[in-house]
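Name: FAD-binding FR-type domain-containing protein
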Amino acid sequence: MARRRLNVRVAGKHLLAPDVTGLHLQPVAGEPRLQWLPGQYLDVLLDEDRRRPFSIANGPQPDGTIELHVRHVAGGGFTSRVADALAVGDTLRIEGPLGTFVAREDSERPMIFVAGGTGIAPVKAIVEHFLELGTRRAIDVYWGARSATDLYLLPRIRQWQRQAPQLRFHAVLSEAAQAGDAGPRTGLVHEAVLADHPALAAYDVYMSGPPAMIDIARHRFVAAGLPEDRLYYDSFDYAPDVLAQIIASRAGFHL
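Structure predicted for FAD-binding FR-type domain-containing protein:
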């Protein structure tokens, strides 16, 4: 799937959490639609050759809609613009699709998804892709966040659980005061995974989140027996050779 540059318009904007904005982007009239695999990301092209990567939170849609989750970072020029100034009808220039964080369908192993913050966005896209395929594989979704208000996709995740009884969800909060006696567990999300699954040799693991989280979790998961070639993570790297192999193996999957 060749990457391309195209213009999109903001078709929708809504607040997902106090510091997370959801954007719905659609192709500008006359522009081709972006074609991507669930889990991939795109770059928003800014001035002076600057760009910002954002994971796509949905799979391909009939109308070409692209969903992004943008966390406002203090002092972050573009994220501040999204939060404060970007309006429905505005135009952005993007480049994509990028990345190899996509569903591996040639496995029957149980899956563990680990997301930190807005890293839930590509996890959402991949999990919903597997659910659309009617997978019967066991799925554990771990979402690490600072506080309960950051768990902005809970209603959607409850829908997943109703659709797929084999899907289990685990919220992990880093702020202990936010959890309470009956609330989500607290601590680091990768430690919660290891507490529940001390031996990972039989699993496929997908991770998306801050680089520091991915780095430490990668080492800990491999030490727990997970083969590195079954650990997939969103590192915002573009590796077309790997992606080509994945696409070639997907008989009957068309965008």
